[in-house]
Amino acid sequence: MKFKETLGPVMIDLRGQTLDSEEKDFLNHPAVGGLIFFTRNYESPEQVVGLVQAIRAVRPELLIAVDHEGGRVQRFREGFSRIPPADSYAKSFADDELQSLLNSAGWLMAAELRSIGVDFSFAPVLDVDCGISQIIGDRSFSQDAKMAGDYACSFAQGMRRAGMSAVGKHFPGHGAVALDSHLHLPIDPRPYEEIETKDLLPFIKLIDEGLEGIMPAHVVYKEVDSLPAGFSRVWVEGILRKKLKFNGAVFSDDLSMAGAAFAGDFPDRANLAIEAGCDMVLVCNNPDALGYVLESLENLDWHDRQPRLTAMRGRFSMNRSELLASAEWKEVAERIARVTNKVYQ
To answer: What are the tens digits of pLDDT across the range 282-304?
Structure first.
């Protein structure tokens, strides 16, 4: 399929399991470049395949994403393999099995999503669990920074085997603050040197391995900058782009979260994130605000960001029936189910 239109800087969501006329208008807006699914958009694999087809009929070039990392954060459940929380792999298997297991888990998650037409999942989590953040907690692969990077790298390699790009989150690390940025604006008081020698290690590891996307945290690291990372040129352009040499796409976290409210109304939030260096901003759960954001960005020249954004497209298609009939899927699904069953038994 050939795509001619430019991907805009806004990722939007949908109210339900079908497209309504207003949402079709939003999809056609030149400032829109992507769409993210939530649990409310899902009933069954067949239904979501139809929804993807309806979206593609309106704007075939749009990026379609979902939060499907596993554990607490997996939007599609019925009809999909249950992916265990990130911290469960190291707890369940010996070191000599871990890399293969993590690669298989990343492949399974990505292959099942690609088979219904989703381009990518916002995964893996690269936060280091510091025993402080409940919103991160078991979503982190490890309390050891090097291991967290190694494990996440294997998971991302599995995603790529299924034709899916990876998005590391939440840069530069959400694991050392207690507050949930969905509800508050957390402040991390640590100096940059401490963040660099711990939290940044997984990001550095995956950037060196070709990481395609990154999502910054709605967290203020006050010894580095007064702005949250996703709204900070110091973090996005200075540290992530220049110091760490990251050349992939930067996605803001959801601008509807309380951690973004400091910036003012939604157009102000979106423009500040874009000025900081984000390639795409997420505006979810607020259709009224979305209209104002799109209006404020409709004349933005986004051509120089296209290579980074188009690299997030699924690299090859998968047939769901053929996938579920394959020997690899059956073996991997059974293997990952053993881990999941240990967690939830």
So the answer is: 999 999 999 999 999 988 889 99
